[in-house]
Amino acid sequence: MRLFYQPHIGSGADYLDLEESRHCVKVLRLKQGDPIRIIDGSGWLYSGQLTRVDARKCFFSVVEKHFEEPKDYHIHVAIAPTKNLDRLEWFVEKSVEIGIDRISPILCRQSERRTLKTDRLKRKAVSAMKQSLKFRMPEISELLPFERILSDTGNVEKFIAHVDDLPRPHLINAAKRGGQYLVLIGPEGDFSREEIDTAMSQGFEPVSLGDSRLRTETAGIAACHILNLINCSG
Q: What region holds the Ribosomal RNA small subunit methyltransferase E PUA-like domain (predicted)?
């Protein structure tokens, strides 16, 4: 099943944007009358038919639609952007494939990258969403100060994954099934002691992601995967 993305289809948009249209015509070589499936990133899958094919703007008609109910858990990873942006893009791509609901880049005291444009991250997320046959687009925020993410948590299970020699519970044992989760992942130089203490004072539980020392983007993937495993059926 090949999916196309049109976030405004629910408001009446009956066309694909330039990038999606080019892929439809130049790569897949679809023709007028061919069936097409479109997602809006909010849980809806639309089945339709191409009515006009053009590499700049393809039009379609909707035949039927299906809604996928949201999961009973929510995964939010707040992560310090890596100096090499390719590594952060890899995290976004793979976490979307595994299953994630919100990604918040955070600016920490020891962050290597202190500015970030999220347009490319969102394009990576769209591509991964279609590739992995997901119907929901995760929220990707702009770069937020560390203190901001601490004060905007709501009623969630809060964890901070950082490096030290103290015994800490593994995330797979600390998190409860069916929860609303927020996991903080620091930069390559880790969180500062002050940031760790501040997070703990606001209810964040220190957790381990395993015995290995992980790179930032790998830690983010590990946290995402662990929380999905906790909520696997069976």
A: 19-62
Q: Cα separation of 172 and 228, whole Å?
A: 10
Note the CATH number of domain 74-230.
Answer: 3.40.1280.10
Provide mean pLDDT across the span 24-40: 96
> What letter does residue 44 receive in the DSSP assignment?
E
Q: What is the DSSP pairing of strand 44-52 with strand 144-145?
A: unpaired
Question: pTM to 2 decimals?
Answer: 0.94
pLDDT band at 166 (very low <50, low <70, confident <90, very high): confident
How far CA 7 is from CA of 25, 136, 140, 164, 172, in Å, comes to 20, 10, 15, 43, 34
How far are the Cα atoms of 2, 21, 50, 66, 124 from residue 35, in angstroms, in the given order?
Answer: 10, 14, 6, 16, 25
The H-or-E segment that residue 121 falls in is: helix 119-131
Superfamily of domain 4-67: Hypothetical PUA domain-like; domain 1 (2.40.240.20)
CB 157 within 8 A of CB 211: no
* pLDDT at residue 162, rounded to an integer: 86
The H or E element that residue 30 is part of is none
Give the model confidence (pLDDT) of 51-80 as tens digits. Answer: 999 999 999 999 999 999 999 999 999 999
Residue 201: exposure state from Cβ atoms within 10 A (0-12, 13-18, ≥19): exposed
Tokens describing residue 91? 């995290």
